[in-house]
Amino acid sequence: MALSKRELFQKRRLRNRNKIKAMANGRPRLSVHRSNKNISVQLIDDLQGVTLASASTLEPSLGVVGKNNVEAAAKVGATIAERAKAAGVEEVFFDRGGFLFHGRVKALADAAREGGLKF
User: Which residue in 93, 81, 94 sits closest to 55, CA to CA?
Assistant: First the structure.
């Protein structure tokens, strides 16, 4: 029996996350969630189970509310890099979830790298 689209997504997401957790060695995880309208990212410390920083296109302070594009994702990436540095984090593991690394996810990652995060 063929798996549904959602089940395939869940398999990709869990496979990616398990590999990251196995290699983490205490480094936080930069977890991305992309919907059709928005993109959000969290900096998660898996050892303590807490979110250290987050950013999203839903935040009015970023000025990209309702914009579903690569520029908005890049702005979110730059913002999370600033907030991560303020939290004292420089090295992270990038968790793209089950999403492919292109388009908005890639723009977010590139902007976070330019902001000073290493992954």
Answer: 81
